[in-house]
Amino acid sequence: DIQMTQSPSTLSASVGDRVTITCRASQSISTWLAWYQLRPGKAPKLLIYTASTLESGVPSRFSGSGSGTEFTLTISSLQPDDFATYYCQQYHTYWTFGQGTKVEIK
Amino acid sequence: EVQLLESGGDLIQAGGSLRLSCAASGFTFTAYAMSWVRQAPGKGLEWVSTISDSGRTIYYADSVRGRFTISRDDFKSAVFLQMNSLRVDDTAVYYCAKDRGGHCSGANCHLDSDYWGQGTLVTVSS
Predict the structure, then answer these.
(1) Per residue in B55-81, pLDDT tens?
(2) CB distance from A31 to chain B under 8 Å?
């Protein structure tokens, strides 16, 4: 099974900050990686797929990079709606999520 | 507009059965694979099951294989999750998700989930 390890598990930041979340795969997954945002009481939202493709309608302050085993999600300037929990997901072999990164207000 | 509406969540005793439904609209249902993902209280997301566009290819997480059954009704544009032999650790919000494509073969399905429902809560008591 492919394991996904996200870091950090919690991140404290302020509006306007640049934020980076890392996701590592236990083996190469090429670019078969997605990032999702979860906010309480809302449907999960796809942000990025194939590691770096921005989903339609997602603000351009979100970006993804990486391939193989190392991936990052970057929010260039944190907005109030961005305080949420973020998950990476590999879909190279079946599906596995990282354990999540909670972005909280500093 | 894509809409996914889950239903069927309930409070149930361990060992019991429950059937979740997901009504889909706003897209050509027969062209897409569909998935179920869950989130236990205070925990992260866990993939549960995926069914291909044709229904002929089905995948399960090890934690539910042999107890859960995914199915789809293309006439009703709905996907279902039959959950048997429920355990306390099956307690979670269950999300229905539309996958980006339809076809799957072997272990390399290569489909992310581009739309999700708001979830339905399943609580299994001891």
Answers:
(1) 999 999 999 999 999 999 999 999 999
(2) no
Query: Closest residue of B to A57, CA-based?
Result: B114
B112 with A89: Cβ contact below 8 A: yes
In chain A, what residues touch B117 (CB-CB under 8 Å)?
A: 43
What number of C-beta contacts closer than 8 Å exist between A and B?
65
Q: Which helix (H) or strand (E) holds B98?
A: strand B92-99
pLDDT tens per residue, range A27-72: 999 999 999 999 998 999 999 999 999 999 999 999 999 999 999 9
Tokens of B115: 């739309």
The answer to whether the Cβ–Cβ distance between A38 and B117 falls below 8 Å is no
Strands (E), chain A: 4-7, 10-13, 19-25, 33-38, 45-49, 53-54, 62-67, 70-75, 85-90, 96-97, 101-105
Q: Which residues, at least 6 apart from B126, have a Cβ–Cβ distance to it below 8 Å?
A: B13, B14, B88
Q: Which residues pair with B69 in a beta bridge?
A: B82
pLDDT of residue B116: 97
Question: Does A40 contact B at CB distance below 8 Å?
Answer: no
Average pLDDT in chain A = 97
Assigned token pair, A61:
């302050």
Q: How far apart are alpha carbons B72 and B52 in whole angstroms?
A: 9
